[in-house]
Design a protein that fits this description.
656 residues, alpha/beta, Rossmann fold, five-stranded parallel beta sheet, elongated
């Protein structure tokens, strides 16, 4: 059977799956089926028996709405069944509406929000280059392939990532651009007229333009991409959306809806599918698709042989491999030496921590969005060297002013495995990264996000840089662990916890100096439980709850509240505290103590979950102003005297 006939049969599976679900996007899969079919059946290197084989090429469908394209290919590979295709977009199926890495074998990352698959692909390519440099180049010589759409390239995150990929000369990365000129609301010329050949040439990419339905041109382009190792490649494939439809070729009506019944029947007939057949998949569909599987299996076997020989014969390789691919033993990391009588910002503490652990954590990899001197990542960078176009063994990545691509890229590194990525910027810019933070949480990526300059104490830079709403805004993202440590030692405890989590975390750190709490080691260790008692009084009847720099303020308030029995609680991470058993919650926050005060230099919405109906929530429910930090603290009532007065007034109706 000819390849074109098989392409048509795969299109039939797409059409029927979308029809069966009464939901989905048939047009894009039909425009790019030639591209995907030849890639999977002739060029993509994978192990037919193990979708997670480490030596595989990675394929990322950045245009996640075209998920049925990938599911059709995974059916051809034998990793999905016809029943899976019939369950498209249904409850707990392996074929959800958009590709999800935790749901479907053969799916590398969760996509759907356009552009992020493109950005995540850099993480895969960078991780392969780095691990190849520090472990073994042959084991990590695979390629990352991306299928993207017009919509992907209209998102700035994709073009920001493309700029960085060209700068880093990532020759193990290929994007395939399905340029079908149609998007949901109509022709793309309604909103864009960019010349992507010039754009990507300007980024330093190898640019190949082809007819995306001509199999000879597709094969030539894929061969050229594989042979291009000094820069990334983009294949701009001119295609027709809904290619093969009876009357709706090149129509936006095929983009996001099932084909009308008459169109579906006529299209399937045009594609050569027997009348009345649903999910038509004769045996030859898989047998021909899998015609190169013997060679793929042999390649995977050879890779495993080399890997095992290196493990057996080279103790240094085995040690390095285990460091990268075994869980982080955070408790075994050496203690960071602190000078307790010297106040320092928690951002400096983070810099000291990653510098101190740089040699112990060869898998720690990351950098800052052009804020290295402010995020305090410079000492780490000096210790580990830069990852750049010439030096792949370095572990500091200069992201440039690209917060969204930076965080999406780190998701890709985490999904690749073998490295623990971190990124860094100001907390006020967290919204630039927010879509990537959310997608990272969905995918359960272990990325450590450092956000410095965490409150109005930033001072003179004013309201644009004072992130009064950002900490609380981050807390509403499920499965993102938001950590606001009170001092350097708490920062160390929480950093150890972040390294152990299989989820993303956000460390929100001060610019201003904070004092050490000077607590016993076993007490500080309780910060890993999300909340703990910093200072207590027998039969306490007033709880002061605080995070970050306000823990020191709460201690000063407790000292000034004469005649009151105060318990001061540091609550650096709500998410960690929520995971503790009820007994621990009640031990820290006794239900009998209803007079509670929260103190945090940010919006107060949300604190009522801990302070209750009778509680007092002290914060900043407005934007900041440009002035020295000490002036703002006075104006906003963040002094011990002002807070004591508010407490006295709030609870004046009863006895504390």
């Amino acid at each position: 059977m000819q390849d074109q006939q098989l392409v048509n049969l795969f299109k039939g599976l797409v059409i029927d799956s979308v029809h069966h679900a009464n939901s989905g996007h048939p047009g894009g899969p039909m425009s790019s089926m030639d591209l995907a079919y030849l890639l999977y059946s002739e060029f993509l290197n994978f192990d037919p028996d193990d979708p997670k084989w480490l030596g595989r090429d990675r394929f990322i469908l950045s245009a996640g709405h075209m998920s049925m394209l990938q599911y059709a290919m995974l059916y051809g590979a034998g990793w999905l069944s016809i029943d899976d295709l019939k369950a498209f977009r249904q409850w707990h199926s392996r074929t959800p509406g958009h590709p999800e890495n935790f749901q479907t074998p053969g799916v590398e990352c969760t996509t759907g929000p356009l552009g992020q698959g493109c950005a995540m692909s850099l993480g895969f390519a960078i991780a392969a280059r780095h691990l190849g440099a520090v472990l073994d180049r042959e084991l990590f010589k695979y390629r990352t392939w991306v299928l993207c759409s017009d919509g992907d390239l209209q998102e700035g995150v994709a073009l920001g990532a493309a700029s960085l990929a060209g700068h880093l000369r990532l020759g193990n990365l290929t994007w395939i651009y399905d340029k079908n000129h149609i998007q949901l609301s109509g022709p793309t010329n309604k909103c864009i007229s960019d010349d992507y050949e010039k754009v990507f040439a300007g980024f330093g990419w190898n640019v190949i333009s082809i007819n995306g339905h001509d199999h000879g041109q597709i094969r030539n382009a894929y061969n050229e991409a594989r042979q291009t190792t000094d820069r990334p490649t983009i294949i701009i494939a001119e295609t027709v959306i809904g290619k093969g439809c009876a009357t709706l070729e090149n129509s936006s009506k095929t983009h996001g809806s099932p084909l009308p019944e008459a169109e579906r029947s006529a299209t399937k007939a045009k594609l050569g599918i027997p009348a009345g057949e649903e999910f038509y998949a004769p045996a030859i569909l898989r047998s021909h698709f899998q015609r190169n599987f013997a060679g793929l299996r042999a390649g995977a076997k050879s890779w495993h042989t080399r890997h095992q020989q290196l493990l057996d014969r080279e103790s240094n390789f085995r040690e390095r491999w285990n460091q990268h691919y075994q869980p982080v033993a955070a408790a075994q990391l050496s203690a960071v030496p602190w000078t307790l009588d010297k106040d320092i910002p928690t951002r400096n503490a983070f810099g000291d921590i990653i510098k101190h652990w740089a040699a112990e954590l060869p898998q720690l990899f990351g950098g800052s969005a052009d804020l290295e001197p402010s995020n305090m990542t410079g000492a780490f960078a000096k210790a580990v060297g830069d990852f750049d176009s010439e030096h792949h063994g370095g572990r500091n990545l200069n992201f440039g002013v690209r917060e969204f691509p930076m965080s999406a890229l780190c998701n890709g590194i985490a999904l690749h495995g073998g490295l623990v990525p971190f990124d860094a910027t100001f907390l006020s810019f967290a919204d630039y990264s927010r879509a990537a933070l959310r997608l990272g949480a969905i995918q359960r990526t272990r990325v450590i996000h450092e956000f410095t300059h965490d409150s109005f104490y930033l001072g003179e830079d004013g309201p644009t840089h004072q992130p009064v709403e950002q900490v609380m805004g981050l807390r509403v993202i499920p499965d993102l662990y938001v950590m606001r440590p009170a001092d350097p030692q708490e920062t160390e405890v929480l950093m150890r916890k972040a390294l152990e989590l299989e989820l993303p975390s956000a460390l929100c750190l001060t610019r201003q100096k904070v004092p050490f709490l000077k607590l016993p080691k076993e007490t500080l260790a309780l910060a890993a439980r999300g909340a703990y008692i910093v200072q207590d009084t027998p039969n306490a009847n007033l709880l002061l709850l605080a995070t970050g720099s306000e823990v020191g303020l709460a201690l000063a308030v407790a000292a000034q509240l004469k005649g009151h029995r105060c318990r001061v609680v540091s609550m650096p991470c709500w998410e960690l505290f929520a995971a503790q058993p009820r007994q621990y919650h009640e031990a820290i926050l006794p239900p009998s103590v209803t007079h509670r005060v929260s103190i945090e230099a940010g919006v107060t919405l949300g604190w009522e979950r801990f302070t209750g109906l009778q509680g007092l929530n002290i914060g900043v429910d407005h934007y900041g102003a440009s002035a020295p930090a000490e002036v703002l603290a006075e104006r906003y009532g963040f002094t011990p005297t002002a807070i004591c007065e508010r407490i006295a007034k709030h609870f004046s109706h009863g006895t504390i």
